[in-house]
Write a structure and sequence with these properties.
43% helix, 8% strand, elongated
Length: 524
């Protein structure tokens, strides 16, 4: 049903207002709670609440964002560091691999180094020297020499001293060779091997050959029993390691042979004089085999010549000297010493790498000097001390060769000490002719005559442009000369502004005034 009522506008407005209030009170309780503040105020409160909510969210994000970033970046950085370390360590790992590989190869006993079949497959792990045997004696003849002492000497001094032990057996030397070759070469360096006065035989020398080639310096002089066969075994072993032919004499020039397997660069065979005048080596023939048969020592010297291509230094002091008891074959056949050792003198003429050749007290004569002038000039340092039979003829031949090979010669240091006879005018003139060729001349312990002093003064006073002394040191230590000679030497040193002439005042010999010629300071 519909009821139509006619009401005034004022009443209708009041009814509409009441209805709106009733509607808002029901559907907007927030406005009712506020006590009727209005819709604008409620909207403001809503905006404030929303802003407060957004601010808390932002604050939370600001607090937790660094943690999130760190949680992501730290593992990433760790991964990158490990990857970079791995990449950078690859070359080092490769180097370590190669180092250990070649190091283990060196530590292992080479099958070509040990000749005995008993040790052909053994390596450092099969023969550990530090276990069980390090305190045990190596040789029955010397209980004090243990493997520990040998290792200490090699590690500290780089030397192995087996001298004066003639009772060493071949088996013991073979064991020592295997043990020492099994040591770490980087820790136990092998520089010098001393076998002087050890009575080495050919068999002992053959068993030591793998060890000898590992040392830079080897001394095998004094009392020995080896001969040409032992040196030949050593040479053949070196040629086997290096793969070289045995005969290199046909070559015009024999260079220095360098090999990683052969460290030998210096051989010393020194022989001292006996009180009876007989050498201690067993070079003398025990029986006569024929007039044309060479003695064993001559064969040894010729065999030594074949080792020169491997050496920088060769010391044969007293070794080439003839024994007081000469072989019967030499007495009957009348052979010349220079002709017997022709192979050594000829080999010297074909080499240009020797740094030192020492032939002290080897009975070198003018004939021998003239046979190997080229070879002697090719040696950088030469010692001819104690060879009293060299006259001015031999020295003149050496001077002429030095001048002829001025651009090719290597000889710069000559030693001639302890001359038996005084250096007279003829020999002094030849020494003075060497001043433009040499850098050092050692005449220590010689008898300097007055003529020699005058020659020295004239040599350093000469204004000839073709004769310019280049010598830097003239050693006259221990020589006998007069007081006036001292004044001359001091004057020469003053002019040169250096200690060109080395001498000692206590070596001056006082002479009577009437013996003084009075013209020492002139060049007459």
């Amino acid at each position: 049903k519909t009821t139509i009522m006619i009401l005034p506008k004022s009443l209708l407005a009041m009814i509409e207002g009441q209805g709106k209030q009733l509607w808002v009170g029901i559907f907007t309780p927030i406005d009712a709670a506020t006590g009727g503040l209005g819709a604008g105020a409620v909207e403001q409160w809503k905006m404030k609440a929303q802003n407060l909510l957004h601010w808390k969210t932002t604050l939370a994000l600001l607090c937790f964002l660094p943690l999130v970033v760190l949680g992501i970046l730290v593992p990433l950085i760790i991964i990158l560091v490990f990857v970079a370390a791995l990449v950078l360590s690859l070359p080092l790992m490769i180097l370590l691999l190669l180092y250990n590989f070649f190091g283990n190869c060196r530590n292992m006993i080479d099958k070509t180094i040990v000749d005995n079949e008993e040790y052909i497959d053994k390596d450092i792990e099969d023969l550990p020297p530090e276990i069980d045997s390090i305190e045990n004696p190596i040789f029955s003849c010397d209980p004090t020499l243990t493997l520990r002492k040998v290792q200490d000497d090699l590690a500290g001094l780089e030397t192995l001293d087996l001298s004066s032990r003639p009772e060493m057996s071949v088996e013991e030397l073979e064991n020592v060779t295997v043990l020492l070759l099994s040591l770490n070469p980087r820790r136990y360096k092998m520089r010098e091997l001393n076998l002087n006065d050890s009575r080495l035989t050919d068999d002992k020398l053959r068993s030591l050959a793998p060890l000898i080639v590992r040392f830079n310096i080897v001394k095998i002089g004094g009392k020995q029993d080896y001969g040409k066969k032992g040196l030949e075994e050593l040479r053949m072993y070196m040629e086997k390691l290096n793969g070289l032919p045995q005969d290199t004499f046909d070559q015009e020039y024999v260079p220095l042979i360098k090999s990683e397997k052969i460290m030998l660069r210096q051989v010393e065979i020194k022989q001292c004089k006996s009180k009876k005048g007989v050498t201690d080596l067993t070079w003398v023939n025990e029986e006569v085999k024929g007039i044309e048969h060479e003695d064993d020592k001559t064969l040894m010297v010729n065999e030594l010549a074949n080792l020169i291509p491997y050496l920088n230094i060769l010391i044969l002091d007293g070794f080439l000297r003839e024994s007081a008891v000469k072989p019967v074959s030499n007495i009957i056949g009348g052979k010349n010493r220079g002709n017997q050792m022709w192979q050594l003198w000829q080999k010297l003429n074909f080499i240009e790498h020797l740094e030192l050749l020492s032939l002290r007290d080897c009975a070198i004569t003018d004939r021998i000097i003239l046979k190997c002038l080229t070879g002697l000039c090719n040696v950088r340092k030469m010692d001819l001390s104690g060879n009293h039979d060299i006259s001015h003829v031999g020295w003149k031949g050496l001077v002429d060769t030095m001048r002829e090979h001025d651009g090719k010669r290597r000889l710069v240091h000559l030693i001639y000490q302890n001359a038996k006879y005084a250096i007279d005018q003829h020999i002094g003139e030849q020494f003075a002719e060497m001043f433009p060729c040499l850098l050092r001349l050692d005449l220590s312990l010689c008898q300097i005559s007055d003529e020699m002093v005058r020659i020295i003064l004239a040599a350093f006073s000469d204004q000839d442009p073709e004769y310019i002394p280049t010598i830097e040191k003239l050693d006259l230590s221990g020589c006998s000369f007069t007081e006036s000679a001292v004044q001359i030497f001091e004057e020469i040193n003053r002019r040169r502004a250096s200690d060109l002439i080395v001498f000692k005042l206590q070596d001056v010999v006082e002479i009577d005034k009437e013996d003084d010629s009075g013209c020492m300071g002139c060049c007459c």
